[in-house]
Amino acid sequence: MKNKISILGSNHSSLFRGTMLALLIMLGTNSIFAQSITIKGTVTDMDGMPLPAANIIEKGTQNGAVSDFDGLYTISAPKGSTLVFSFIGFSPKEVVVGNQTTINVSLAGANTLDEVVIIGYGTTKKSDLTGSISSVGAKDFEKQPVFRVEDALQGRASGVQISKNSGAPGAAIKIRIRGANSISSNNQPLVVIDGIIGGDLTGINTNDIESMEILKDASATAIYGSRGANGVILVTTKKGKGDAKVNISYFTSISKVPDFIDVLAAQEFADIHGITFEGQGENYQDRYFQTGITQNTQVSLSGSEGKIGYFISGNLVDQTGVTINTNYKRYSLRSNLSAKINDKFSVNLNLTGSIEKSLNLVAGGARTSSDRRGGLTAVLGWDPTTPLRDANGNYNLTSTNAVGLVNPIAVREQSDAKLTKNNFDANLTANYKITDNLSYTFIGGLLHRNRVIESYRGIPAGSSVELPKVGAAFGSSLALQNSNILTWHKEYGKNNIKLTGIYEVQSSQNRGFSASGGPLAIPGNFFSLRLGMTPGVNATLSENTMKSWIGRGEYNYNGALFITGTIRSDESSKFRKGNRTGIFPSLSAAYNLWSILPENSFIANLKVRAGYGETGNQSIAPYSTYNTISTTSANFPLNGLDESVGIKLGDTGNPDLTWETTKQSNIGIDFSIFEGRVKLSADAYKKNTTDLLLAVPITGYNGGGKFLENIGEVSNTGFEFTIDGTVFDKEQFSWSSSFNFTTNKNKVEKLAGDQQQMIIDPVGNMSNSTGGMGIIKVGEPLGQFYGATFLGTYKTGDTDGTPGSAKYLRDTDGELVLGIIGNGTPDYTWGFNNTLTYNKIDLNILFTGSHGFDVLNLTRAQISMAGGNVNNATIGEYRNRWTPENQTNIPATGNNFVNSTRYVEDGSFIRLSNIALGYNLSNIKGFDTIRIYASAQNLFTLTDYKGYDPEASSTSASSDAGSSIDWGAFPNPRTFTFGINIGL
Amino acid sequence: MIKNIKKSVLKTATVSLLSASMLFVACVDLDEDVAEARLDPSNLTSIEALEASITGAYKEVGLAVKWSQFWLNSFGGDDLTTHSGKNKIAFREADLRVLTATSARINTAYEGSYKIIKAANNIIENEHNFTGTDQVAIDAIIGEAYFLRAFSYMHLTNTFGRVPLSLTVAIEELGYSEIIDIYRQIEADLLKAENLLPNKYPKVNAAIRPNNGSARAMLAKLYLHWAGYPLKDTEKYAMAAASAKTVIDNAGSHGFALVPDMNTLWSTADKNRLNSEIVWGVAHCVPCGVTYANRHSGKLGYPASMGGWSEIFAEIGLFEAFPEGPRKEATFVTEGILKKDDSDGIHKKGDLVNWREFDDEAHPMFRKVTGFLSEIPAKSSSTSMTTYFMRYADLLLIYAEAEGRSGGNASDAWEALNKVRRRASALPVDTADASVDVTSGDLAEMAFTERKWELAGEYIRWGDLVRMERVSSALGMRSTSELVGPITGSTAPENYFSPIPQSEIDKAPQLEN
């Protein structure tokens, strides 16, 4: 039935197109005989500067002319014809020839110069920007098969470092804008979607995004005050306008883990560890990983009807994981409606809802459960001589050669851990023009989230076989925001003034409860929760509120000098009275130097910018200033027979806590060369963050734990630039290129009092570490690894250690010498994006690179020798371990300190992040556009890293005290995609 | 007309938008309501809150002693050893006396003890804020808090020597306290505990909640150590003897007695695990939740050949020297069923073999660790076996030894020793029996030796060797068949105590000296 209709449709349109073609030919033929007149004029830019070598073409013909050095041109064209004026880097303009003989045209800059840029609480022209902002528009990524926002951002904006800590879908994305400010607090940027603060990037459909603006320097972010310190990402979703348009896109991908880690095969493992076994054993990596398949379908309908504009979209992502028994699904719907009620009053209502469902993707997909013994390290450390199942088809759950673990494949196969996230966002914006100069904008928004966890683990991860476990959790959050914006705008001759005043209130509430059943005597499913023998329950609530006053003044003299000043006052409920109010000012200026540039200058559109601003950070948990009592892990069977309810001291509150403050200065320059073909934008900055909200580890003798204090100082100094260029721009073939580069130097300037260093455990305790694996040290950057220096092995005849055991740097007393052994934060990153178009074929190639950082490869450390949950080394290089006959530097006995230089590896990589080849079919009856494409992501990675993926990390996306620590981290897969986009 | 309607609609819309914002604005309250979301410590003054607080403290006890590393340093004793390889490095290092500040697992004894202390400090600091009609019950719990603090500091100083002495929940910067000051604090706390605790804790079947007898018994142990290394205040022997005797004389009122059959001590049946021999110990109740399990028993005492974790073994020297008889049979497990074929192919999976034949690895096993296969499967590492800090047998032997070392020769002291000896031979404990009873000789040394057999594998022997400065001589007798190998570290007193964990020095650099 469907087919029939489309055939009918195409028949109709082919008839129509045929007729049109005939008409056009006739018109073309006719024009030869029409009477031509001579037209003269000047082509300039918007500032009146002449544009030499601009193209003037009579539309639909070969008839054309080129402007001279002063922008003057002459052309003959018939009355009623249309002239098309174009110049590289500017938007073309069409003028219909009437009776006039002089047509002067001024062209507006294309993409960049007069593009409107979203800034906090308003918009501005890109040419008027005083702050440092990177923009990524839909055009930059719409041709790529992306459904995760980080894929749309990665490598496409300078000053922005995006690390995909986990290759699992829906996992948290680590985004750093100009480095990390905070040691203990969140370093993720603030996300603002359509004016609503605190959005979430993982649930959003990339197809709905019109543009993303990344506010980098404090003069741009200070308007977000206390939450602007980590930079701000402003996401604007699409609006409907013009004729109704339907877009349908579909792609399917296959994904695989790049390369397996070299571990001992069953026979090697048996030979080395003196084990007898029969059969083939098992390749557990092969059992664990699989080819993942993704299907992504997006449909959108947009347009406008009278005063109503609409954009409606739907998206369905269905992904089976690259490890067995995992999957991810996302359903999302959006409706953006805009109504221009009259000249003064307009309203927008954006509604979006999404559901994300995942199976067995715990800890960023790295594990089956929160227990590390249910993850990659267990797969690699398990005994390869014991197959998954015995001769009777039953699981081999335990092995005498791997007594610290339960068969990790059985654990995964029998795991049913479901996470469902339901998101609903609503956002109403109403604008009323009170006078021509004064307008009021109301923004009311709500973000509603809930999370449901239903997990049943038939074979729980652990070191011995336990009964099935059941757990449940429900969490619900509601954030409300109301912003009231008054804008006043007036021109006095060449002086242009804009004033904005904002009053804003936000509140958020998180509540949740959880239940666990404990072991089940009768195996069942999640809904057997009640059968659990030792049930446990918990409930949580946290609320916070913030009230803000904001003012901004923008002044512009003759389009040459721009000055912007902002001030924001935030009052947060997280702090006590007296410490509650934070004032965050900023001032920035830009100057257009076009007037002083000589004519015929090599450099054009030169603008310099400078700014200073202060921003804050308040990302601590509510109630952090109060001592509280904890009810978790406090029960105990006091009489030895049944459980009594217990309480214990919670974290010690610090009533004096206040804002963490970041002061940032920025200078920048923008210009173009080669007649606008190459545009360059560069920025340098210095940031200082003081009064860090630092979680100071409490000594063991004070009971351990952490204590929040406003101490210390961190600085970031950096430089970043973007070059956009048109390499070729011929009718049939064009090549545009964009390169961005980011470097950042981070340094801890000060800790508490005269404290010089803090040893931390960024990924928790691990057996066989020398203690904390991270160090925060004055004078050094964040992300330093701390540990022992590996010196190979003791050899036969050595008297200071057992031959064959690992040798570490020790002092004269024989104590280990511990120190900094590496750093996990890249020195610099870059992205190189190329789009080549040849007729109907386009090719996009995106390279990204990350350099000058180390990865602490704990995955390798854990399986290199017996220790922790691993009883026998499984790593491939153990083949070449020390023996009396072959005295290598691979230890065969003794201590194996996991945080030693032995496991610190260079993580630098260059990656072909994306390569996509597309073909645009035109003249297909019934369709506006059809595009088919094939692409590959992460096709290759050049790196010396020995693990799966140097980008994957087991550290949290929000923290930087430790980064690039691979303890069973989940690798980014290599993906091949085929897709089609259809426009109707 | 239409225009007017439009206008009024617009007006209404604008007004309602503005008033909505105003409403929202008016509700802004920036003061956190902690009471809505959390428990406010200052409100917790009832006996129920006190009971919950001591439960939280016991939870910390349970967590601290869950794993064998709580007694890591005690692997130095001539009773305990571990596997020669695998992930047992820290235990080997303790066994060989080469522990360092960065040894694995070294944190547990240190941090676990201080977590108990923090919970106890919280109660002690607020001891006068609790009100209720049942003052006896309030006193008992406060007494427990003092007891737990004393117990924890005793474990700390016996393990690490000098440690910081924290007596408040406030975060403070501390250096090391001298051992004498720590001992005095423990003594003061135990005296207070004795004063506040009842003769027998109500509603508990055994001294898994201490009574005033438990406190006095711990004082006896404290004085015994006080008289030996490192303080060597030998006057304290008499106090140790007197304290122990007080408890023994009132054993009935505390419910203390030797169980007739030693085997039942390691049984996990409820009637056995909550027994009269507990002077102070922790009950582990797996049916109450796996989190309360004893994780230093069951599988941890079996070798890999039997599918065990190869963590805690008896030393061969101990096994060979151990006097034959029912106690030896109750102490050791000497054979087991193989879980895999031997690599030499002599024994196959399923064969029952003597420990000497174990391929991986040949060590005698402790019944005190493995428990009974009928109750704890070989693959289980979560058991309900009781953790004993002090058994009544221990107290009887403290009395005998302290009496002897203080120059006394009381017949009660001989009787205390003989009770233990009779039970070791499976004889009725209260009936004199010339076949095993001793009545003359060096009472102290006989008791000291008796402790070696009776308490072997209970992490007590190391402390005995330390206080008598006999580490060197005892370890010198190590069997050459011991697979972990000969002692490589120093056996001199300077190496008796464990180093403070490096992780603590990292947080408190003032402790580095």
Describe the structure.
The complex is a heterodimer of chains A (984) and B (513). By secondary structure, chain A is mainly beta. Helix content of chain A is 8%, strand content 47%. In chain A, strand 20 and strand 21 form a beta hairpin. Chain A is globular and about 100 Å long. The two termini of chain A are 19 Å apart. Mean pLDDT of chain A is 86; it is low at 1-33. In chain B, helix 3 (47-64) packs antiparallel against helix 5, helix 6 runs antiparallel to helix 7 and helix 9 crosses helix 15 (392-405). With 513 residues, chain B is mostly helical. The longest helix of chain B has 26 residues, at 135-160. In chain B, the strands form four sheets. Chain B has a two-stranded antiparallel ribbon. Chain B has a two-stranded antiparallel ribbon with strand order 2-8. Chain B folds into three domains: 1-67 and 105-197, Serine Threonine Protein Phosphatase 5, Tetratricopeptide repeat (Alpha Horseshoe), CATH 1.25.40.890; 206-278 and 390-468, Serine Threonine Protein Phosphatase 5, Tetratricopeptide repeat (Alpha Horseshoe), CATH 1.25.40; 288-388, no CATH class. Chain B has helices at 2-26, 34-37, 47-64, 89-95, 107-125, 135-160, 179-196, 212-227, 236-249, 251-254, 270-273, 316-321, 326-331, 367-370, 392-405, 411-424, 443-454, 461-467, 471-475, 502-507, and strands at residues 80-81, 278-282, 313-314, 332-333, 335-337, 352-354, 365-366, 387-391. Chains A and B meet through strand 24, strand 25, strand 26, strand 31 and strand 38 of A and helix 1, helix 2, helix 3, helix 5 and helix 20 of B.
